[in-house]
Amino acid sequence: LSFTFRPKKNIPEGSHQYELLKHAEATLGSGNLRQAVMLPEGEDLNEWIAVNTVDFFNQINMLYGTITEFCTETSCSVMSAGPRYEYHWADGTNIKKPIKCSAPKYIDYLMTWVQDQLDDETLFPSKIGVPFPKNFMSVAKTILKRLFRVYAHIYHQHFDSVMQLQEEAHLNTSFKHFIFFVQEFNLIDRRELSPLQDLIEKLGSKDR
């Protein structure tokens, strides 16, 4: 099984969401991540979360893409984040009962599932004035919770490869942005974050 490098999910240029993404990129450049993740004044929370979720999906897609040759059926026969955490896949529709599978298979299921959500216009409307559905927040939370698991797997099982590729600064910045964002809006349950708790505390303490 080879990880198919998914096409970047593009936010249409000239759209309001595109403006928001540009705003996010500009504030990120300032180096103050706590401030960069805050909801810009007068903006819709759902839309802000949608734009950032798409951005995190693209980032993780890229980061995982750099280490796929090291994440194989043999090296990672289970989807884990250290010895204490193992994930089994279920999406509630195609696979209802959680299945144990290799990390590359799990991540393939996960990224395909996320992409399907992002491409669903009823969940992630790209047209101006089309409202977000009532269940948007719970869908976004599930997406982010699952994307977190890819970071957790990379940190626990592939950090050596990341270092060899000299990608650690890139990975750390991406993850820090992700964590500050989910903390700002309380999007992932603390218990779900425990595989990287020490790292999260370390990243946070540098900014107090």
From TrEMBL:
It comes from the Eukaryota. Keywords: Metal-binding, Zinc. The keyword Metal-binding applies. Zn(2+) binds at C71, C76, H153, H158. The keyword Cell inner membrane does not apply. This is MOB kinase activator 1A. The gene is mob1a.
